[in-house]
């Protein structure tokens, strides 16, 4: 997995840089800049954790969708179907 973020020191402190845009990364719309070194390291770890969760979530959703598609394609074996008659409504007489 490619690293999407990096740390950069600036005049006002440390920033977490989004490598795709080369701008400070944002979390809920707030730029992650002007932090002290320890805060920046912790925020970087949090961002990477969020990315891991998103990746795992997408992978699980993809797997579930494939499983659901495969389940719809499999029909019951004719041998099993032959052993069962039609269900009749239950009468509690």
Question: What can you see in these coordinates?
Answer:
The chain is α+β, with helices and mostly antiparallel strands and 93 residues long. It has one domain. It is built from two helices and five strands, in the order E-E-E-E-E-H-H. The chain has helices spanning 37-73, 78-82; strands spanning 5-10, 13-18, 23-24, 26-27, 30-31. A three-stranded antiparallel beta sheet has the order 1-2-3, with helices on one face. The chain has a two-stranded antiparallel ribbon with strand order 4-5. The longest helix is centred in the middle third of the chain and has 37 residues, at 37-73. The protein is elongated. The mean pLDDT is 82.
Please tell me what the overall shape is: elongated
**What is the β-strand count?**
5
By DSSP (H or I, 4+ residues per run), the number of helices equals 2
Strand content: 15-25%
pLDDT below 50 for ≥5 consecutive residues: which ranges?
none
Supply Rg.
27 Å
Total separate domains: 1
Read across the widest sheet, the strand sequence of neighbours is 1-2-3
Q: Quick one: biggest sheet?
A: 3 strands, antiparallel
Task: Report how far the terminal alpha carbons are from each other.
Answer: 66 Å
Q: What is the helix/strand order?
A: EEEEEHH
Helix content: 40-55%
Output mean pLDDT: 82
Structural class, by secondary structure, is alpha+beta
Question: Secondary structure elements and their pairing?
Answer:
Blueprint: E1 5-10, E2 13-18, E3 23-24, E4 26-27, E5 30-31, H1 37-73, H2 78-82
Summarize the structure.
By secondary structure, the protein is of the alpha+beta class.
């Amino acid at each position: 997995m490619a690293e999407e973020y990096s740390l950069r020191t600036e005049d006002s402190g440390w920033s977490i840089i989004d490598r795709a845009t080369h701008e400070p990364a944002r979390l809920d719309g707030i730029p992650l800049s002007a932090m002290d070194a320890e805060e920046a390291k912790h925020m970087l770890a949090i961002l990477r954790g969020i990315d891991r969760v998103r990746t795992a979530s997408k992978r699980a959703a993809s797997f579930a969708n494939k499983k659901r598609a495969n389940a719809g394609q499999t029909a019951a074996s004719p041998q099993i179907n032959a052993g069962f008659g039609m269900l009749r409504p239950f009468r509690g007489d």
